[in-house]
Amino acid sequence: MLRKTFIIASLLSPLLVAAPVSAQPLPQPSPQAQQVQAVNLNTASAEQLAMGLTGVGLKRAEAIVELRTKLGGFTDVNQLLQVKGIGPRMLELNRERMQL
């Protein structure tokens, strides 16, 4: 067993030594890539809300749409706190992703 390990290591070590290693710098994300796509709470479908908001799945997005219909549209982002499962922490995580 030890002999097999030694043979494999002997065969692979020249490959590691002979291959030049060059570190390529990682590409920096552009400022446009860092911008988050905002979701309009008054016009987005449940699917768009689920895809655009962190921590919001399809069930919660459907609850948002239901509340929006009940209220006749959102006038303040804080109205989302009425949806079960959305608290102040989730609201802060998504504040930059939401628009009215």
Protein described:
The protein has a domain at 37-100: DNA polymerase, domain 1 (Orthogonal Bundle). The model has no long low-confidence stretch (mean pLDDT 83). With 100 residues, the protein is mainly α. The radius of gyration is 26 Å and the shape is elongated. Strands 1-2 form a two-stranded parallel ribbon. The protein has helices spanning 2-18, 31-34, 46-52, 58-71, 88-94; strands spanning 39-40, 98-99.
What secondary-structure arrangement, pairings included, does this model have?
Elements: H1 2-18, H2 31-34, E1 39-40, H3 46-52, H4 58-71, H5 88-94, E2 98-99
Parallel strand pairs: 1-2
Helix pairs in contact: 3-4
Q: What share of residues is helical?
A: 40-55%
Q: What average pLDDT do the residues reach?
A: 83
Silhouette: elongated
Distance between the termini: 68 Å
Radius of gyration: 26 Å
Key phrases:
mainly alpha, DNA polymerase, domain 1, two-stranded parallel sheet, 5 helices
In short:
The protein has 100 residues and is mainly alpha-helical. It has 5 helices and 2 strands; from the N terminus they run H-H-E-H-H-H-E. It is elongated.
